[in-house]
Amino acid sequence: MTSNLSALFNNAKKVTLVSVPIKEESENETVEEEIIKPEKKKIKREHEYEDLSIVNAQTVFVGNVPIGCTQKELKKLFSQFGTVKSVRLRNLIPLNPKRGKRLAFIKKEFHPLQKTINAFVRFTDETEAKDAISLNGHLYKEHHLRVDVTHGQHEDTKHDNKRSIFIGNLPFDANDDDVWKVFEECGEIENVRLVRDSATSVGKGFGYVLFRDEASAGLALRLNGNCKVGNRQIRIKTAVKKPKPIKSTMSSTKPRRQNKKFKSKKSFHSDVNDGVKQGRIEKRPAVQLRKEKQKQKKKNLSTKTNNTRKDVIHLKKKN
């Protein structure tokens, strides 16, 4: 055993370490590097919500605009009063209802009965919008423009019924300018408004005319029965504000039907001639019968108990 161990020890001394050559990277060899592209961070843009009162004060409503008018033409018309921030066209009715209004405006495919549209012009300052109201009644492409403040801007300014008239029995295809030509002889007109259907822009046969003064409205009322628009004789009346409907506080449910035979507690009112005192209610016959039977049972029981007691007493005495 000792000889074998010494032989292994001597062989281990003879073992030499062999150095392995390491391959050095040459200068010509290119090292491929992965290019990591930086991810684009999604920036959430917060919408700036503006105060509606400020927006309404800077915006002007323009009615009776020719249907062929563009946003650039309106911007050029109102730029004389200041810098126009935006122009929005409204009440466009496309020829094909399945297509959008934007496509209909680009292709100029409008409803055949529609001849005018409305617009909203916004300025950068409130004073510029107030100055633009002076274009009210301006003749633009054979159309009298109706320029006014937007709804809800001035709560104090209300429609003056003394200076306005109501017109009825108008042709359905009548325009604001047709009515304007008829009543411009009576005096200076502030605006003409015909009520139209929102879906087809066809007139509903009535409208309103607002004059600058009350005397002009009085002259227009004298034309009642002697004035025509198109082929129809129109009806002229004073404009009256309709009263607001009063909401009833009573419940909408129908009152409960009362039976004539029996009176309820709420509906009962005793009279002097009635045989019932005030506050008493006539009982139903079924209830009366049931109570009478109960009383009779009690009487029978009381009589039985009394008789038995008497018999017991008599027996005691006999004993």
TrEMBL record:
It comes from the Eukaryota. It is found in: Nucleus, Nucleolus. PROSITE patterns: RRM (PS50102). Residues 254-267, 292-301 have a biased composition (Basic residues). InterPro entries: Nucleotide-bd_a/b_plait_sf, RBD_domain_sf, RBM34_RRM2, RRM_dom. The keyword RNA-binding applies. Residues 268-291, 308-319 have a biased composition (Basic and acidic residues). It holds the Pfam family RRM_1. One of its GO terms (molecular function) is RNA binding. Its main location: nucleus. Keywords: Nucleus, RNA-binding. The keyword Signal does not apply. Residues 58-152, 163-241 form the RRM domain. Residues 242-319 are annotated as: Disordered. This is RRM domain-containing protein. The lineage of its organism: Eukaryota, Metazoa, Spiralia, Gnathifera, Rotifera.
